[in-house]
Design goal:
Residues 165-405 form the Aminoacyl-transfer RNA synthetases class-II family profile domain. With 439 residues, the chain is α+β, with helices and mostly antiparallel strands. Helices cover 28% and strands 25% of the residues.
């Protein structure tokens, strides 16, 4: 059979329709269009009603009546579920909360104000059973995060975690898109490495479980003849690549052996790192940091409005995004003066030379208007060996910068790299790293 596509003047809609039929219709019978329902509702009403649709997802609610059966089905593409209306004859004992279904019918404009469209079903197939008695999540019950975490294999079915995963997916897309548009080359840096870029010793050491093991004088087993660790940063690998490309970045898993149960200190997380050649000042780095933050935020607000709204309302109320406000910039010395002039009592000391803690960062952001805030020129002793020396005695600061944002504190940091070989060698020797980085 041949599906007739109504004429449309809008070229983009025509192209989208051709793409849809080419790649999606082979999955279903010839007269059925199979799409996520969030994509289906983007079709013009006349087109929706002219075709039969097949929706696959999981039942969120079942409401049988004398003549009609009402279902809410969610396919993971959106926070919202699709209302399905069917004859009561299609009801089935396996049609329960949590069951997986495939439903075919017509996607039409809904007479109810609660939703724009609904699926008038003529076929319902239960492809995966779910016993509502044993299922840990119940209809219309609110479950706390601590309870949800007891079921890591099922928590993606909850609104809070499904929204988080959609937001994370879109954030990944936005980050990759930003660097691609700016001409950066993506580099996959090693997960197993002998480097400790941060120099803090918070490393997971990796040792082989097999029999072929090399042992050092102290009896340690080294598969690579040297100690190997899960990466804490891909920075040093990127610095090498920056000798051939003007801009490189990596986006992958990072590991820190910090004995902490807080949300700010995870054993494993994903981190974006970039290196830029031919920079002239910290402003070059700050421009990239701010642009990346703004473009990613704008992408999320446009692509995930319902998911972001869920977190604003229920998970982190009060932390509205203020990405459109102009960022401010202060030096570390100015930040210390602001903290010391405050009447607020801090848990951590605010002496010059002390590292800024989360409580300090959040206070500074509020003090400066609750907008993104750059803090520059940290004490040289606080920064790793590769950070450029400002040579501004007696303060002696480094060309480093952190971006602080409302509700979070530090979001990202960076520094100019020390390009003067004599100063770099001196710093390595002082840190006892000259042999480690002799290459």
């Amino acid at each position: 059979s041949k599906v007739q596509i109504p004429p449309k003047n809008d070229l983009s809609s025509t192209i989208f329709t051709i793409f849809t039929f080419k790649y999606f219709t082979p999955l279903c019978p010839p007269d059925i269009v199979r799409l996520s329902w969030s994509k289906s509702i983007m079709w013009p009403p006349g087109w929706r009603s002219a075709l039969r649709h097949c929706i696959a997802g999981w039942v969120r609610s079942v409401r049988p009546q004398k003549e009609n059966l009402f279902l809410h089905v969610n396919d993971g593409s959106s926070l919202q579920s699709l209302q399905v209306v069917a004859s009561s004859e299609l009801n089935h004992r396996l049609l329960t909360f949590g069951s997986a279904v495939e439903i075919s019918g017509s996607l039409v404009t809904s007479p109810s104000r609660k939703q724009d469209v609904e699926l008038q079903a003529d076929q319902i197939d239960v492809v995966g059973e779910c016993n509502p008695v044993d299922f840990p999540f119940k209809i219309k019950e609110k479950h706390g995060l601590e309870y949800i975490r007891q079921f890591p294999h099922l928590r993606c079915k909850t609104n809070v975690f499904s929204s988080l995963l959609r937001i994370r997916s879109e954030a990944t897309t936005a980050i990759q898109q930003y660097f691609k548009e700016k001409g950066f080359i993506q580099v996959h840096t090693p997960v197993l490495t002998s480097n400790d870029c941060e120099g803090a010793g918070e490393l997971f050491q990796v040792e082989p479980a097999g029999q072929d093991k090399n042992q050092d004088e102290e009896g340690h087993q080294h598969f690579f003849s040297v100690p190997a660790y899960l990466t804490v940063s891909g920075q040093l690998h990127l610095e090498v690549m920056a000798g051939a490309f003007p801009g490189v970045y990596t986006f992958g898993p990072t590991f820190r052996a910090e004995n902490s149960q807080s949300r700010r200190h995870l054993a494993e997380f994903y981190m974006v790192e970039a290196e830029i050649s031919f920079t002239q000042s910290l402003e070059d780095l700050m421009k990239v940091m701010e642009d990346l933050f703004r473009s990613t935020t704008e992408h999320l607000l446009s692509q995930c409005p319902e998911d972001v709204a869920l977190y604003h309302k229920h998970v982190s109320p009060g932390y509205r995004v203020r990405h459109q406000k102009i960022s401010q910039m202060i030096t570390y010395t100015e930040a210390i003066n602001i903290l010391n002039s405050s009447s607020k009592k801090f848990a951590f000391k605010t002496d010059w030379g002390s590292d800024l803690q989360t409580e300090h960062e959040k206070y500074l952001v509020k003090h400066c208007g609750d907008v993104p805030l750059f803090v520059t020129d940290y004490p040289y002793a606080l920064k790793p060996f590769y950070t450029r020396d400002n040579q501004d005695q007696p303060l002696h600061t480094a060309a480093a910068v952190d971006l602080l944002v409302p509700g979070v504190g530090e979001m990202c940091g960076g520094s100019l790299r020390e390009e003067r070989l004599d100063l770099l060698k001196t710093r390595l020797a002082q840190a006892g790293l000259d042999e480690t980085y002799r290459w």
